[in-house]
Structure formats: C-alpha cells, structure tokens
C-alpha cells in the first residue's frame, strides 16, 4: 500500500484552495513523549485542518525506543484505512550521545518505524556538538531543526538524500533562513513541518506554506518540497 501525496498539475499557492492536495506533516508529538494529546486526537486534529498524511514522531532514546515504537506501530496498524488521513509510525531520536544515532536508527527500523527524525543542533537547546554530522551518517529520513548547519553537513545531507527541516516551531525556527540558504547552495532537500506538541501548534496547510514563504522560500522551492516528499512517501509501506 502506497502513501501518495498528489500535487497533480496545479501550482501550489497560498491563495488557492488546497483541498486537491494530500497535505502532509511528518513531525508531530503525542503524550507518548512531550506532547499533550493522544495519537488518535493528533490524527483527528490534523485531519480537521486538512492534512492527509502525518507521521507521529515522539522523542526517543535507549530508555524508551522499544516501548514508543511498539505503541505507535500498533496504533498505526489499527488506525482505520478509510479514515481520510494516513498515519505513519515514526520517532525523533533526541539529545543522544551522537555515536548512538546509528545503532538506534537500526533498532527503530527493526521495530517497524517508517519515519526516523534526528533532533538536530537547534540554537535554542544544548544539543551535543557533532549531532548533525553523526545523525546524517545514520539511517535517518529527516534532520529536524538543524540550526546553523555547516557546509560539510549540508553536503552530506544532499548526498544521502536526507531532508533538512524548515520548521514553524518557535525557537527552532530562528535558523530557518540559514538552513534554506545552505540547501540552495548544496542542493539539499528541504521539508516543511510544524513539530506540533499542542493543539495550537497544528496550523493549517495554508499557514504552513505561508510560513515557508515568510522564511524565504520561493514558490518554486515550495513546489519542489512537495514533489520530493511525494516521491519519498510513495516508497513508504506499512
């Protein structure tokens, strides 16, 4: 079964209706970690905002990854296929000693996780030095809020096909313009996410696109983001 994010041939713009798009957000938290909501309420609230595909990506390290993975994989298996929103099982590997990203990513895949995010070197948290680099060497899909990512690590992300996140999350978004400029320079892939923890964080797709434009993305770059993520999601099965 494939997870299609159809963009058809209609250009995406903030002013148009987005009902023709299967909108996505691949970074969301529940009370399995530090979010406020049940997975089911997260799914319902995203669906209400117009999203068609989400990933639930709660924070994980060695203390909880097996429990988190078991819970969210089971939830996704039991989520109704005809609900109107596809929910993918994910994790966000967070504040790890950097050398642990590789083995924990392997373990996450073994436990059935489809979307692996690494918690990058955001400027608003004391993330360990070299986190971006060693996370990018691991089997991850998205480097979240990578902060003031270096040239070397941006090139690494580009060569490995890892998405660099442009986020609407307060604090983390301070480095968005740098991330966008680095991605342009080295042709790395970008992804727009809202990194939700509360109901208020779940902004509508139109708002997320507008935020991307405000951070400096062009309309063509936003179109490319949706094209790249469509290809990525088409490869994901459950």
Written account of the structure:
There is one protein chain. With 238 residues, the chain is α/β, with parallel strands linked by helices. It has one domain (23-234): Metal-dependent hydrolases (TIM Barrel, Alpha-Beta Barrel), CATH 3.20.20. 37% of the residues lie in helices and 17% in strands. Strands 1-2-3-4-5-6-7 form a 7-stranded parallel sheet. The longest helix is centred in the C-terminal third of the chain and has 16 residues, at 219-234. Residues 1-22 have low confidence and may be disordered.
Features:
alpha/beta, disordered N terminus, single chain, TIM Barrel, 238 residues
Provide a quick synopsis of the model.
It is built from 8 helices and 7 strands. By secondary structure, the protein is an alpha/beta fold. It has a single domain, classed as Metal-dependent hydrolases (TIM Barrel, Alpha-Beta Barrel).
